[in-house]
Amino acid sequence: MRETMVLDAAGIKTPDASKARRLPEGWSAVKDRARMPHYTFTYNGPLTGTLRVPGDKSISHRALMFASLCVGTSRITGLLEGEDVLATAAAMRQLGARIERESDGVWRVDGVGLGGLLEPAQALDMGNSGTSTRLLMGLLASHGLTATFVGDASLSGRPMKRVIAPLSQMGAAFEPSRGGTLPLMLRGAQPPVPITYRLPVASAQVKSAVLLAGLNTPGTTSVIEPVPTRDHTERMLSAFGVEVEIAEEAGERVISVTGEADLSPCDVVVPGDPSSAAFFLVAALAVPGSDLVIENVGLNPTRAGIISVLREMGGAIEELNPREVGGEPVADLRVRHSALKGIDVDPALAPSMIDEFPVLFVAAALADGTTRTSGLEELRVKESDRLAAMAAALTSVGARVVELPDGLEIEGTSGDPLRGSANAAVETQLDHRIAMAMAVAGLASHDGVQIDDTAPIATSFPTFMELLQESSGR
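Predicted structure:
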C-alpha cells in the first residue's frame, strides 16, 4: 500500500513531519513518478499576492516549429518547458533543427529552412501531446519523407482521422493503427497538391495542420472555418514573414497561404498561458478572502472565453496594464473572491475555452444555481473523456452533476464548500487538466480532495504545485 502524503497550499506534509517542506528546485513529477504517493489538496487560506504562469503552450509549440523552418537563428523567450513542448523540441531536432536552451532561459533555434527537413532515423515520440502530433503531421505531409509517430497510452487513443482526411487530399499517405490512431506512419506527398478545405468541426489543430502543409505546396492552400478558432498560427506565420491572407466570405473565415513560402528568423516572446491562468482564476474566485494578481496573461480573443464566462457568473476579474507581447494581446489580471451564480454557457464560446471547461465545471459546482453547458462533444476526445471524467470526479466530492451527451448540468452549492474526498482518490484518467481542476476543488472543500496521480500535470504546467504554495497560506 502506498503511503499517503497531504499537500496543502503551504507545502507537502508527510505523516511524520511537523513542518511542511517545499518541493525541491527542478522537481519533476514524471521523474519521481514511481515513488509518488497520492496527494490531497485542501484549504490553507486565501490566495494573495502576485504570480506568473508559464508560457502559452499553443504558442510555444508553434514558435519551435516555425523557427525550425527558417534559415538562420531565432530566439524564444518565455517558452513553456512542459513535457508536451519538450516533445516538439525533440522532434524538430530529429528533423534537423538545432535547438538549445541558453543559460538565461532563452531558447535558440537554428533552422534548416522550409523543404530542408531531414527524414527522422527513429520514430517521433509525441508523448502526450496532440498538438505536436497533428501540427507535425501537417508540416511533414508536404515533404517527401517518411516518419512514424508514437505516443503514450492516452495520446494513442486520440483520433487522428480529422487530420488524415485533408492531408490525404494533398497527396500524403498514412498507415495509422486501427481506429485511425497512433502509432502511425506518414509518407509525405511527392508532389503535394494545394486544396481548399472546409473544417467539419471547429479545430485550430486541423486548420493549422493544413496551413503548415500548404507552406511547402506550390499554389494556394485555403482553410474555411465556419466558426472562428484559435488564430495563433496565422499571427505567428505573419511574424515569421509568411503572407497569410484572411478574408470573410458568406460569414465564414477563409485563411490562405501560398507555397512555397519563405520564413525569416524571428525573436518570439511567449505570453503567459490563459489555460494555465484559468486554474488560479477559479481558485481565487472560490476561496474566501482571495485577492490575487496573475501577471502577463495572453488575452487573444480566440482564447479568452473563460474570462467572459466567469465574469458573466459574477467573477471580479480586472485587466491591468494591457499591452502587446509578441503580437499577442496581454494583461495582468486581478481576481478577487466572488459570489458566483449559475448560467447557461453559450456553446458558441466553446472553441475559445475548450481546454478550460474542466475548471469551469468546478466554478459551477460552487455557484448559486444551475450551470448548463452544451456543444462540448470535443471534450470526449481529449486526453480523456473530460465530460465523463469531470462528472464522476465532481460527484465523488459531493457536487450534483448530470452528464449529458454534449455537456454537463451542475447544481451549485451557493458558495458552500464541497464535501471533498480525502480518503478516496479521485481518478484523473492521466489527464493533466482533470488533475489541476480537482486540485482547485480541494481548496474549496471541507475534507480536501485526494488526486490519484499528479504526474500528468507536468505535461503543461510543471510549476503548478509550487505556485499554489506561493499564493496560499501567506
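Summary: The mean pLDDT is 91.
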